[in-house]
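User: Could you go from structure to sequence for me? I need the amino acid at each position, not a summary. Structure tokens:
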């Protein structure tokens, strides 16, 4: 039996197990009767080999990010609680053996036996307000996903993951830095309010600060490179492909304006603006004329329905852009001569 479990363990780490094999492995590891098995002894040996000079804070952050990747690979298309909660401890232990997270856990006393991960995914046209275990508040934007542990440990990093857009009001705790992981970008605070825009397909990442101070870093090949310290009214825009960034000033009132149905766009191309409007209004755009892609706009829409928004864009184009709204199919077709 133990040999079979060891083989399953190796296959699991290699991503070669099917759901039935994973269930068998999780049930075995979750059984307290197997706590002293050779299997767990092997993990102790793996931990003992870790170098004492390891930067555990950084290892913990990177390890946790990879654990999330492993968990999400096996997570069903569910928008709520990870369904195998009773196996959560086993999942963490398995992934820990290969990531060095087990080493970090050994430095924390008492050692936690389980870390359950929760997640929330919003659909297009949807936004929600969430309260995290530390009482921090998150406003999650449309078409976004937030993943966080079911509880935070006092004195340890508060790590969460974001794909999409969210505005954070972080509970101050000097002993427990709050870190948001968004792809290769990392945003760290102690207690402040700020907005992150990090849709993987958009090619850009941005952080805008409303209150407090935020440290933004890039994670490249496991090494963190600090990009900037942001204070109220500052915004960092990072281009993922070019790997460069700019820091500019932002109106404090615009940092989280989308929470109150106000959307501000600055020198933005028409395709990128339409991409955002798709998420906000749960609508699909079809642009028939490619030269419209070169049009750029500065615009703010406050409490407008999509019809009113499109009419304002048409006027800003000098009435050269045309559009047709198909309400039944939630589609807007756009064409025209260009822009003003």
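Assistant: Here is the amino acid at each position, in order:
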């Amino acid at each position: 039996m133990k040999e079979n479990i060891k083989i399953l363990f190796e296959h699991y780490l290699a991503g070669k197990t099917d759901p039935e094999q994973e269930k068998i492995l999780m049930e075995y590891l979750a059984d307290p009767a197997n706590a002293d098995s050779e299997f767990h002894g092997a993990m102790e040996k793996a931990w003992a080999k870790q170098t004492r000079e390891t930067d555990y804070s950084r290892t913990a952050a990177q390890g946790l990010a990879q654990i999330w990747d492993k968990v999400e690979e096996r997570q069903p298309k569910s928008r709520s609680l990870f369904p195998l909660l009773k196996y959560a401890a086993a999942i963490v232990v398995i992934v820990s053996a290969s990531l060095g997270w087990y080493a970090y856990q050994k430095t924390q006393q008492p050692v936690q036996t389980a870390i359950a991960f929760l997640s929330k995914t919003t659909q297009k046209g949807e936004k929600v307000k969430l309260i995290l275990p530390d009482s921090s508040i998150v406003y999650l934007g449309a078409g976004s996903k937030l993943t966080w542990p079911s509880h935070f440990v006092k004195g340890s990093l508060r790590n969460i993951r974001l794909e999409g857009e969210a505005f954070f009001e972080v509970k101050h705790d000097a002993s427990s830095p709050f870190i948001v992981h968004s792809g290769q970008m990392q945003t760290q605070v102690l207690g402040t309010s700020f907005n992150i825009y990090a849709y993987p397909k958009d090619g850009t990442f941005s952080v805008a600060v409303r209150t407090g101070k935020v440290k933004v870093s890039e994670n490249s090949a496991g090494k963190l490179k600090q990009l900037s310290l942001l204070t109220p009214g500052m915004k960092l825009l990072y281009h993922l492909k070019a790997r460069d960034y700019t820091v500019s000033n932002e109106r404090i009132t615009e940092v989280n304006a989308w929470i109150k149905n106000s959307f501000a766009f600055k020198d933005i191309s028409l395709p990128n603006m339409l991409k955002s409007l798709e998420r906000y209004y749960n609508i699909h755009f079809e642009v028939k004329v490619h030269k419209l892609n070169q049009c750029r706009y500065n615009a703010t829409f406050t409490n407008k329905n999509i019809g009113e928004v499109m009419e304002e864009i048409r006027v800003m184009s000098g009435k050269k852009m045309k559009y047709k709204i198909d309400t039944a199919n939630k589609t807007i077709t756009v064409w025209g001569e260009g822009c003003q």
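One structural detail worth keeping in mind: Helices lie at 2-13, 19-30, 38-48, 56-73, 88-99, 101-107, 270-281, 306-316.
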